[in-house]
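User: Predict Threonylcarbamoyl-AMP synthase's structure from this.
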Amino acid sequence: KWIVDKHVNEQKDYPHISQAAEFLNNNEVVAFPTETVYGLGANARSTEAVAKIFEAKGRPSDNPLIVHIGDRAQLPALVKQINEKAEKLIEAFWPGPLTIIFEKQDGVFSDKVTAGLDTVGIRLPDHPVAMALIKEADLPIAAPSANRSGRPSPTTAKHVLDDLEGKIAGIVDGGATGVGVESTVIDCTAETPVILRPGGVSKEEIESIIGPVEIDAVLLSGEGAPKSPGMKYTHYAPDAPLYLMEGSPEKIQTLVDDKQKEGLKVGVLATEESKGIYSANVVIPCGSRKDLPTVAQSLYDVLRAFNEADLDMIVSEVFPRDGIGTAIMNRLEKAAGHRWL
Ligand code: TXA
Ligand code: MG
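Assistant:
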């Protein structure tokens, strides 16, 4: 049943996409690439299909799913209204890594998709395979990230296989995803829109289009109940405890030396610029500090890679919290359980 089509691209026609679309119409679940991370798609109209997503991922049932569309024209039928700020965001960022929360239209998807909420998150992904698949299936597609719940989101088909082999009908392999972290989730139902999850589109970019927005305060402190149900769960944590540490590589190396003297096996999440400075049990570079999008792109692959070594602790460099850096630091803080050294 596995569909493995290495590096599907715009130039090819899509033989496997037709098969994947057929699976979706038969209420099976299929993983597919988007520009952010791989998604695990199902027919959003079918409770049976949507239940298979929760089952395969081991996802808590109170965590709602994003509905993916292949074309803007699909939107009006799915939501009660599209206000002016939402219109502007759509114009500026769709297709792209921005999920917008609307009041949902009644009776158009399974209640399981929205976990009983009266709002729904909608996204038009900027990926030729995702768009072709959704259009061909001709359905709204509910799709969370295609990882086991709690694991880093998958940025390659291999990550999906590692987590979900035998649990889903198939996977369309479009190569590594581009952005590397998930979409930004923004609630546009309030007068002042609220960012519920930082992601591929930055707060600065959003504010340049619609003016001031808020950011769910819980995301910054790590305390309390976030407005987005999914943000309350532990996520992305590697097997060994991860710690964040500010300061120069030389300062971090001093700590690594101390821990190794205590007999601990230590991993370091470094960058292309700093990797040569460290001496530790494992040093993995995660993109270039001069080009933060490359850090976002590598982050989940690097977090997964640490599990291949038997480590007692991992220390990570930290990144500036602007632009995509906000999303990078949000994911690193979650992976570290907000532990700092
Ligand atoms: O980039 C992405 O968004 C990827 C790709 C596959 O599109 N999808 C993704 O989905 O990250 P998921 O399910 O892993 O994360 C969706 C997040 C969760 O934190 C969920 O709680 C939140 O969006 N969410 C979904 N619907 C919501 C709603 N109606 N109100 C508030 N939060 C919502
Ligand atoms: Mg997820």
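Residues 144-145, 153 surround magnesium ion (ligand 2) (CB under 6 Å).
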